[in-house]
Amino acid sequence: MLSEHIQSGDYIIVRADPSPQPGEIVVAWVEELEGCVCKKLTRSNRLVSDNNWSHKLTDSDRIYGAMVAVVRITSKLYRHA
């Protein structure tokens, strides 16, 4: 989700919310994929991403919550003895 400034290796902070608002980025279990995704929720109850991927939520899918923050670790602290 590069347009949302989420990069590989980033951590996201998620607010538990089974009913997020359209336009929010959510973490959801997609039964068809047998895995979790982090995608934007649309008004038509679809999950979408930058690369034109789209999925209509079904009764077997589950939204865990909405993203509230992105954490990126840019450097490691090294201690010299």
UniProtKB/TrEMBL annotation:
SUPFAM superfamilies: LexA/Signal peptidase. Residues 1-52 form the Peptidase S24/S26A/S26B/S26C domain. InterPro entries: LexA-like (IPR039418), LexA/Signal_pep-like_sf (IPR036286), Peptidase_S24_S26A/B/C (IPR015927). This is : Peptidase_S24. Signal peptide: none annotated. It comes from Tuwongella immobilis. It holds the Pfam family Peptidase_S24.
